Amino acid sequence: MIKTKLISLLILLSAWTSACASACADQIDFSEGWSEQRFSLFSSNEFEPNGETLHIRSDGTVSMFWSRLPPALWDSTQAVWDWEVISSVPPTDLTVKGGDDRNLSVYFVFMPETSLPKPQAKLTDLLGNTRARVLMYIWGGDHRRGEILPTPYLNELGRSLILQPASTGQARERVNLTTDFQRAFGTGPTRLIGIAVSADSDDTNTKIDARISNMRIEKAP
Question: pLDDT of 98-142, one tens digit each?
Fold first, then answer.
């Protein structure tokens, strides 16, 4: 009897663990539901999505690759990903408009559920909404890991958090969106409604060759 109960308990525990893994984490597929947001007709990065990997090339250009998230992920609290920079822009001051090139930025866009734009809205519509807040994790700049910086374009709506200074190499990141949002904006986060990835080399007229992969958005168990 005891053995039977123990087996039943292990089966239930295994089922709960599998359900939690499915419910608490979501693997990002860059090939589905993503689109490019240009800021100029003549400036566009080269984004090559291949399932869980996104290859980015930038040659004196800047643009973003972005996706809205489904409602099931709006209360996600953590994110993890791998990224690699093969060719890097030089170190820059990321607080200066017109001189803030960086290898990669991962944008997490937050907004109150009552202020959500229409489904067909562009990323620029979201970034221009005064209720939006944008937390950017950066590989680039002449800054120390962990620094939180104001952004020259989003003003009080956005903050940059440095993970890697301008350089080549590989890294794996795990971030706590709730904690970092609190540090950046002084309040708890609203709904996580979108993600974007960008590369920016237009000010220094240099080249970036980079990739990001194995991104997961997670809820705290």
Answer: 899 999 999 999 999 888 777 777 787 777 788 999 999 999 999
Would 111 be classed as within a structural domain? yes
Which of 17-26, 131-140, 160-169 shows the lowest per-residue confidence on average (mean pLDDT)?
Answer: 17-26
Query: Containing domain of residue 188, as a range?
Result: 27-218
Residue 108 lies in a domain: yes
The rounded distance, in Å, linking the Cα atoms of 148 and 138 is 10
List CB contacts of 65: < 8 A, sequence separation 6 or more: 30, 34, 35, 36, 37, 45, 47, 49, 54, 56, 196, 197, 198
Domains in the chain, number = 1
Q: How many angstroms from the chain centroid is the CA of residue 92?
A: 20
